[in-house]
Amino acid sequence: MTPGPEIAIFVLAGGKSSRMGRDKGRVLLNGKPMIAHVLETLQELELPINIIANDASYEQFGYPVFRDVVKEKGPMGGMLTAFENTTADVVFLVSCDMPFITTEVAKILMKSASQDEIVAALVGERIHPLFALYPVELKKSVKDLISEGNLKMTDFILKNKHTLVPSGFWKSDGIFRNINTQQELNEAEEQWNYLK
């Protein structure tokens, strides 16, 4: 049996969220920074973990922190930063504002990992580009799109060879919830024990 591609995880910590009004990764949820919940889950996968952030304070979590190689290009710029800072075949890109993710779903997506195909979750008709696997060989394509100003992650997925893993392979679609506002944070606090 041939081994699968080498995978490295990169967590997008971004910066100040316009809707939250502060840095989402460090917002407290159930007594811990939101990114800490994400990192704890990802640790169980036993893969190299890295953080993409322009704030050195993220070094407190004990993983390598990389600054954006191109400024203000959103997740697409984050993906390029990951590609530029790994020797792996595939980057597992994860947003810091998805504290309900599970290793179960990560492993389901990783089973389809390929050196030439994007793998992302599909919930209903919604693709989740920030909990997805991207082949590093797409680096030139990402650079071209950034230079053209085309930063839509979903468009990028659909324009390239991809596998979309539909819901039904995991227990709850709630694991893909991301926290963008104070109200969503409050709701997440209330539902934490139920969803985790």
Task: Describe the secondary structure blueprint for this structure.
Layout: E1 7-14, E2 28-29, E3 32-33, H1 34-43, E4 49-53, E5 65-66, H2 74-84, E6 90-95, H3 103-111, E7 118-123, E8 126-135, H4 139-148, H5 153-159, E9 162-166, H6 182-195
Parallel strand pairs: 1-4, 1-6, 4-5, 7-9
Antiparallel strand pairs: 2-3, 6-8, 7-8
Helix pairs in contact: 2-4
GO cellular component, one term: cytoplasm
Binding site for GTP: 12-14, 24, 68, 97
EC number: 2.7.7.77
pLDDT average, as an integer? 87
Specify the helix fraction band.
25-40%
**Residue windows where pLDDT falls under 50 for at least 5 positions:** none
Radius of gyration from the alpha-carbon trace, in angstroms? 16 Å
Order of helices and strands: EEEHEEHEHEEHHEH
Per DSSP, the total helix count is 6
Q: What can be said about the biggest beta sheet?
A: 7 strands, mixed
The name of the CATH topology is Spore Coat Polysaccharide Biosynthesis Protein SpsA, Chain A
Give the overall form. Answer: globular
Q: Terminal Cα separation, in Å? A: 35 Å
CATH architecture level-2 label: Alpha-Beta Complex
Strand order of the largest sheet: 5-4-1-6-8-7-9
Proportion of strand residues: 15-25%
Total domain modules: 1
CATH class, named Alpha Beta
Q: What is the CATH homology-level superfamily?
A: Spore Coat Polysaccharide Biosynthesis Protein SpsA, Chain A
Question: Structural class, from helix and strand content?
Answer: alpha/beta
EC number: 2.7.7.77
Keywords: Cytoplasm, GTP-binding, Magnesium, Metal-binding, Molybdenum cofactor biosynthesis, Nucleotide-binding, Nucleotidyltransferase, Transferase
InterPro entries: MobA-like_NTP_Trfase, Molybde_CF_guanTrfase, Nucleotide-diphossugar_trans
Binding site for GTP: 12-14, 24, 68, 97
